[in-house]
Structures are given as structure tokens and as C-alpha cells.
Amino acid sequence: MSDLRVISLSLIVASLLLSSCEPSHSDRIVVGSKNFTESFILGELIAQQIETHTRLKVERRFYLAGTYICQQAMLAGRIDIYPEYTGTALTAILKENASGDKAQVYERVKSEYERRFGLTLGPEFGFNDTFAMEIRGEDARRLKITTLSQAAQYTREWRAGFGYEFMERPDGYRGMVATYGLHFKEQPRIMDLGLLARALKDRQIDFAGGNATDGLIPAFDLFALADDRHYFPPYEAVPVIREQTLREHPEVGKALAALRNTISDQEMQRMNYAVDGQHRDTKDVVREFLKEKGLNH
Description:
Shape: globular
Distance between the termini: 50 Å
Structural class: alpha/beta
Helix content: 40-55%
Strand content: 5-15%
Radius of gyration: 19 Å
Strand order of the largest sheet: 7-6-8-5-9
Largest sheet: 5 strands, mixed
CATH superfamily of the largest domain: Periplasmic binding protein-like II
Number of strands: 10
Number of helices: 15
CATH topology of the largest domain: D-Maltodextrin-Binding Protein, domain 2
CATH architecture of the largest domain: 3-Layer(aba) Sandwich
């Protein structure tokens, strides 16, 4: 079975599992996440913040595949909150062009989510996790390239790897290769996001579509090529919240407000590395971060 069919089947199974879950209830808050490390960390951050600063019970439903599954889970009331990125919401959910500065994108997504879906955005966590097109650091130094435009002259000899969602979304693969005139040696491999950095390091691929805050970029001596034609929109990390949840539990909004601008790009990268590179327990990593910020009491 091809990788694409396996992934498609996984999405169908995840959808069926979601439909079989009981809707969230008023006696607890259900926090979700996507199926990669950073989303899992942010989901745990949200969960611990609510547990610490309210009397509500929190149920965790993490690793819910990608954006579309999380969105459907929110609309169905299966989860109450999950971490998202403004650029992803703008292009993948609202189907709008990737344009505007980060404040404009945030306000556009917030207003449209409220108007269309009964969802809203919480405060920005503080970092921008844009897509990062990565190559090995040794290749960047040898070829003296720093940008995607410069890389275009070499990609015909490179094998590429991307996550399933990046291949399908409107701000993903098709637009990027058209913008930069990229052509690869063979059809890109579709891989789990957590495997891309290692596949690049181990020379299974030569070009990977990762994320800017991936903790393995410095650990594996990878290099993120600059998006010099500004193809990608801002991807500020934010909690998406059901408006009904905030009406029933305004204390949740107060707890999450304390997380505004608490995480820098470097801090998010360090937390990702602690989980992916050092194999530490996510709950411990989040607990230590909240303690450093004075938010765990």
C-alpha cells in the first residue's frame, strides 16, 4: 500500500474515532492537539494552565491527526480548545490567500471563526512557527546558499520529503514550487512530520519541509532556507476555543490570557528539542517552563 493510501486511511480512521467519542460536557474542558510534537506540547501547556488556575477538570485528546480533523472535532463539540496557527487557519480552513501582516491575519481569522463557526482565538503564544524548508548544514555551506531562490538551481538533483498536509494545503507544496520554480529529482516522499529531520540527516532525502521551531534543526546541523519571496504567511501559534466554552467557563479565558506572548521562537525550539532530542516527558518540560515564567501557582 502506498504511503498516501496509508495516510488517507489513517485520516478516515481518525475521523471515525472522533465521531464515536462523546461530546465534551460542562464538567470538564477537553483539550486537543494535532499529531506532532509542538502541538502536543502546546496542548499540554493549555491543559496545565487551566488545571492550575481553575477548578475545572481537563481531559486530554491529543494526536488528532491534522488541521481538518481538529477543526471537525471543535465543530462537533468533541474538544473545546486546541493549538493552531493563524496562517494555517487562514489558508487551510478559511481558504483565503496568504496575505497581510501578523496582526491583520490574526484579526481576520478571529472575526471569521466567530462569524462562521462559533469559535474564537485566544491570545498569541508569542512565536511564529512558519514552514522551514531545510537542507543539511554541510550542503548549505558547501554550495553557499541561504535562500529558497538560490536553492532552485540545485533541487533537480535532490530528493524531497514533506508531510501529507503540506502536500495538500493551499499554502503548501504546489504554490511553493510554482513561486520558486523548484523541480526535484523524483516525486516527493510523503512522511510523518516527526521523521523528516532524521531522514534528512540520514541522507534518505536532501530537502525537507519542516517547521522553523523544530528543535532538531540545530541538533542535526540542518539549515532552514530563507523564504526570500515571502510565500508563506505568518503562522502565529494561538489557542482556538469554542465560544460556548468561554461563556460557560469565563475562568478559562482568564487562565489562557496569562499565556500571551510568553514563548519566544527560541524557547519553543528548546522545548521541542527537550521532547524530540532528549526524549523527556512532555508534562515535565511544560511544568518546568510554566515554573520559569511564574505561572504554575
